[in-house]
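We were asked to recover a plausible sequence for a given structure. The inputs and outputs are reproduced exactly as logged, with field labels preserved.

PROBLEM: sequence recovery
POSITIONS: 288
GIVEN STRUCTURE:
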């Protein structure tokens, strides 16, 4: 077998991992367009309504969310599909590495074959412990590349924020329930009192809630009561984005994950092979 044909044969081992990665990448792009369209529409048609209450204890109005539209159920299902496809792509990558290693699957027991996974570890010690089970017989050079892709490689203090850590967390969650994004109120906001009755309006305080949900306080308008029935007319704007678990911005996560997945795959597979495979399947090569 010539060196060229050997390289081609090895590249074919990664076919499934590459195709799943590209499929997931394309779906993140489509999903981001859908999310951005919804956020753009929310600027003129907010996904919530507000109510206000006067509180004598702090001499002002509390502006709270009265109703909020639920996000589309398909968002959670779409995110679950993307997460699981990326996760599967990394596991397919691990399988390919075992196939070209010292103990290919034909030499392993069924239990050992079922134990092949792409490790996602929070420390070097845990990674070293995982190798015999997850990556049996994988070449030393490939082990080094997988090690560099681990969350702890950028510093153990930031492991929790690594895209692979989040991917693992979401994949585990999706096995038991649908991942459901929620509306998040980021820093961009604006409020203005346009009319006041029976009160003198002072400053406006942004309450900076983490999540938009019913009864959450958005702002306080301090006002001195001058009559029996104080009231205000308020104009405002609260920018929204989509997040998971009140803290993870979904578009940022998807962008980081797809870039990381592409970079990781290209560390093992020839780029020209990847592009030719993608073109043959009619997929996009824009980010490769």
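RECOVERED SEQUENCE:
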């Amino acid at each position: 077998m010539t060196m060229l044909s050997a390289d081609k044969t090895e590249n074919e081992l990664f076919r499934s991992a590459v195709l799943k990665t590209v499929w997931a990448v394309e779906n993140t792009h489509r999903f981001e367009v859908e999310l951005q369209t919804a956020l753009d529409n929310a600027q003129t048609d907010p996904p919530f309504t507000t109510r206000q209450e006067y509180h004598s204890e702090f001499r002002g109005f509390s502006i709270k969310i009265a109703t909020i539209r639920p996000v589309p159920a398909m968002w959670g299902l779409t995110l679950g599909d993307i997460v699981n496809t990326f996760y599967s792509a990394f596991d397919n990558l691990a399988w390919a590495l075992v196939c070209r290693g010292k103990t290919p699957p034909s030499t392993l027991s069924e239990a050992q074959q079922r134990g092949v996974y792409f490790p996602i570890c929070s420390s070097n010690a845990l990674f070293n412990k995982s190798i015999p089970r997850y990556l049996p017989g994988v070449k030393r050079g490939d082990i080094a590349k997988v090690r560099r892709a681990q969350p702890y490689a950028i510093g153990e203090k930031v492991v929790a924020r690594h895209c692979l850590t989040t991917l693992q967390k979401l994949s585990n969650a999706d096995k038991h329930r649908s991942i459901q994004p929620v509306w998040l109120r980021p820093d961009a906001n604006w409020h203005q009192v346009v009319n006041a009755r029976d009160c003198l309006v002072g400053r406006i305080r942004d309450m900076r809630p983490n999540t938009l949900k019913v009864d959450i306080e958005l702002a306080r308008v301090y006002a001195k009561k001058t009559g029996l029935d104080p009231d205000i007319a308020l104009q405002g704007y609260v920018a929204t984005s989509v997040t998971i678990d009140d803290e993870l911005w979904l578009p940022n996560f998807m962008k980081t994950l797809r870039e990381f997945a592409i970079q990781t795959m290209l560390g093992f597979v020839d780029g020209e092979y990847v592009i030719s495979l993608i073109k043959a399947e009619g997929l996009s090569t824009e980010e490769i």
